[in-house]
């Protein structure tokens, strides 16, 4: 059987840890920073662990060789 392709959009958006957890960026930080408070911008920095129900979908369909 041939290799499955990883979705290009998923490999830019998600990161998988060594234990198999999926990390994602915070929502609401792509544009429009002028209307957000400094506290909001600061708190949306970095990555956060994705909910397990959503992470299962990402691992199965978008990142087939993640873990």
Automatic annotation (TrEMBL):
Family annotation (PANTHER family): 54S RIBOSOMAL PROTEIN BL35M, LARGE RIBOSOMAL SUBUNIT PROTEIN BL35M
Keywords: Ribonucleoprotein, Ribosomal protein
UniProt-listed Pfam families: Ribosomal_L35p (PF01632)
Gene behind this protein: rpmI
Identification of the protein by name: Large ribosomal subunit protein bL35
Record InterPro entries: Ribosomal_bL35 (IPR001706), Ribosomal_bL35-like (IPR021137), Ribosomal_bL35_CS (IPR018265), Ribosomal_bL35_sf (IPR037229)
HAMAP family: Ribosomal_bL35
Span of the signal peptide: none
GO cellular component: ribosome
Family, as annotated: Belongs to the bacterial ribosomal protein bL35 family.
Organism: Albidovulum marisflavi
């Amino acid at each position: 059987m041939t290799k499955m392709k990883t979705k290009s959009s998923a490999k830019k958006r998600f990161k998988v840890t060594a234990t198999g957890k999926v990390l994602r960026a915070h929502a609401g930080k792509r544009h429009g920073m002028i209307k957000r408070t400094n506290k909001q911008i600061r708190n949306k920095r970095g990555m956060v662990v994705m909910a397990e129900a959503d992470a299962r979908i990402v691992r199965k369909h978008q990142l087939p060789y993640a873990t």
